[in-house]
Amino acid sequence: MAELPPSRLKEIEPVPIAELKSRQHAVVRGRIVAMTYPSEAAALQLRAHMKDATGTLIVQWPGRREIPGLRVGTEIAVEGTVSWQQTELIMSNPTYQIISEDD
Fold it and tell me: 60-89, pLDDT tens digit by residue?
């Protein structure tokens, strides 16, 4: 998915991560605290651990090795459908917006 124009996701009230339910479509806002980059041999899939005051959500982008501007410390808003996969709360291929970058 692509990054959205500057104010689209800022206007929507985010759902706290702790309140997310499987198959729920939601906007979530938080800070990237860890990222996993695919190795050359692995399937292309960028994974970011996004945290708010209530919990952690794993955001993944299949087919992506990197996203410009997205790194540990970046505050983002994401919109998509949440699912539980084993013990992880995951949002796959969300629409996203970079809110701020922590330098």
Answer: 999 888 889 999 999 999 999 999 988 899
Pair type for strands 95-100 and 88-92: unpaired
In the chain, what are the domains? 9-100 (2.40.50.140)
**Residues above pLDDT 70, as percent of the chain:** 87
- End-to-end alpha-carbon separation of the chain, Å? 25
- Return the exposure string of 43-67: e unless at least 16 CB atoms fall within 10 Å of the residue's CB, then b: eebbbbbbebeeeebbbbbeebeeb
CA pair distance 78, 58, nearest whole angstrom: 11
d(Cα 77, Cα 99) in Å, to the nearest integer? 7
